[in-house]
Amino acid sequence: MITARINQIEVQVPEGTSILDAARRVQVKIPTLCKHKDLLPTAACGICIVRNKGGNRLIRACCTPLEEGMEITTHDREIVDVRRSTLELILSNHPQACLTCGRNGECELQTLAADFNIPMESIKRYVKDLPPDASTGSIIIDFTKCIKCGRCVQVCQDVQNVWALSFLDRGINTRMAPAGDITLAESPCVKCGQCSAHCPTGAIVENDETPAVWEALHDKEKICVVQIAPSVRVTVGEAFGLPPGTNLTRKLYAALRRLGFKAVFDTNFSADVTIVEEASEFLERFVHKRGPLPLITSCCPSWTDFMEKRHYDFIDNFSTAKSPQQMLGVLAKTYYAERLKLDPSKVFMVSIMPCTAKKYELSRTEEMFASGFKDVDVALTTRELARMLKQSGIDFLNLADAEPDSILGDYSGAGTIFGATGGVMEAALRTAYFYATGKKLEKIEVEAVRGLNGVKEGTLNVGGAQVRVAVAHGLANVETVLDRVREARKHGQESPYHFIEVMACPGGCIGGGGQPYGVDNERRQLRIAGIYQDDRDRKIRHSHENPEVIKLYEEFLGKPLGPRAHELLHTKYTARPLYKR
Q1: Model confidence over 237-294: pLDDT tens digits?
Q2: Residue boundaries of the structural domains of the chain
C-alpha cells in the first residue's frame, strides 16, 4: 500500500493504482473520454490531466500510477482551462448533429461539453465529409463522429481478437476504419457490437430498424408477434433509470401488447427447447459415441461467424442446434400458426435481443427459412426497444404486470440463465444429468461455470462418468480453450473437455453489443445477479420439465433429435473466408 494526497485528502491504495482510480476512492471525479473500465489506458484524449506538487508538467491520470508521497491537484484554473481547450479542439472536428444522433442524451462527449459550459464555437470547425459504413446491416460506423479515442480499436483487437478495426493515416487525417480501408462487411467483423458498446459517441451504433417494426404494427394485414431474449428483462430498466439487474419481465409483456403485438412470446421458452435438443445431442456424443467431442455450443451468432472464419476445423464439434431466436421464429410460423389456424405468410416475427449480431443471424439463409418463410423478420436491440417504448407514450414502469402467451411463452429457470456467461452450459448440464441418470442434480447451481473469469473449467460426475467442461466469454479467451483441444489432438490424446460454451461478449448476453450503454464488470455482475434471481424464483428450473415444451414435442415435434426436430431446429455450418472480396 502507498499513501498520497489528492486535493488535500489522504488516500491509501495498492501500489500500481492509477491516479484516476485512486481519485475515485476519495469521491473525486476526474473527467475522461478515452478511458473505459474494461480497457487499458491509452492517454489518447488528454482530458484527465492533473498536477503533482513540485512537478513541472501536467500528467495524465488514467495511465500514471499514484506514487508514495504524491500531492495531486485534480482541479484548478489552469487544469480546467486546458481541459476546456482540449474539448474545444475535439468539438472542432465533430459534426453538430446531436439532435439526430443515435447517442443524443447518452453521449459522453455531449455530457462533457455541457459540464464544461462550452456554449459556442471558439475554433473553426473542420469535419471531413465521409459517408457512413452500413455494409453489415447490423452496425453503422459514422466516421465523422469519431473522436479517435481508440476504445473501439482496443476492444476489437485485444478483447475480441477480431481485428476488424484499426487507425489509418496520421495527424489531423487520422481516422478509425476497417483495416485496409475496406468496408466493415469485407473485414473480419463478426458483428458483436462491442465497438458500439464501448464507443463514447455516436460514431458506432446499431442499425436502427424500429421504422420497419412501426410500419408492420400499423399494417392491418400483418399478424405481429414478438419474443424477448433472456437478458433483456434485466437490462431494459437501465434506459428508464432503474438499477442494473431489475427484472421487468412482466412489464415487458404488458408494454409489448400495448405497442400492438398480437402475441408476446419469450425466448426463454425456446432456450428450454434448445437445451432439450443440445443436451440430447451431447449424450449422443458422450454416451453413445455418435459424433466427435468436445461438443461446442452454438447459440451466439458472433461466435458462429468467428468459428466459421477462424476455427472451421471445429465445425464437426459444433452443436447443430439453432439459437433460441431461430427456434422460436420457426415455431411461431409453424406450430403457433398451425394451432391458431393462421396464415404463416402474414405472421411478422420481431425479436428483442441484447445483441447486434442477431440482426446478422437473420441473413444466414441456410438456417432462417425453415418455416418456408423468413423465420424472424426483424431483430431489435434492447436500446431500440427502449426508444420505441419512450416514443409510444406508454408509462412503462407503472404498467400492471402481464403474462406471456403460454404456447411459446412459459419458461424454466434454466431458460433464463442463458443470458449470463456459463448459463447455457449450466442449463444443459441440468438436463443432460437427468437424461443420463434419471435423477436431478443434488446441487442445481453449477458454480464452476459461473462468474466473470474469462475461462472457467469444471468437472461434473454424471452417472459415474466425469464430464469435463469449459466456458469462455470474450472471443480472445476462446483461443486458450481451443488451443488446448488442438494440442491434445496433435498428440493423439483425449480432449481435455467434453463440452464447451462460448459467448462472444464479455459476461455473455448481459454484456451484449445492443444493451444499454455504460457496461463494465460491476454492471455485468448486477445484471447476472438479476438473471440468477429469476432462475431461483421459478417453480420449474429444468428445461425438460417445462410443461409447454413437453406438449410441443408430444403434439408437433415428436422426439428430441427426431426427423421433424432436425428439420426445423437444426442447421449446418460452412467455412468462410476471413476477408470478403
Answers
A1: 999 999 999 999 999 999 999 999 999 999 999 999 999 999 999 999 999 999 999 9
A2: 2-75, 100-202, 211-569
With beta carbons less than 8 A apart as the criterion, state whether 571 and 320 touch.
yes
Sorted by sequence, the CB contacts under 8 Å of residue 419 that are 6+ apart come out as 229, 230, 231, 234, 354, 508, 509, 510, 527, 528, 531
The Cβ of residue 581 has, within 10 Å, a number of other Cβ atoms equal to: 5
How confident is the model over 185-209, as pLDDT tens digits? 999 999 999 999 999 999 999 999 9
User: Taking the complete model, does pTM exceed 0.85, yes or no?
Assistant: yes
**Hey, how many other C-beta atoms are within 10 angstroms of the C-beta on 452?**
18
Catalytic residue positions, numbered: 278, 281, 299, 319, 358, 361, 366, 509
**Cis peptide bond prior to 577, omega within 30° of 0:** no
Instruction: Write the single-letter amino acid at 369.
Output: F
Q: What does the block give as the cell for 186? A: 469485407
CATH of domain 100-202: 3.30.70.20
Q: According to CATH, what is the number of the domain 211-569?
A: 3.40.50.1780
Please state which CATH number belongs to domain 2-75.
3.10.20.740
Nearest Cα to Cα of residue 319 among 285, 353, 367: 285
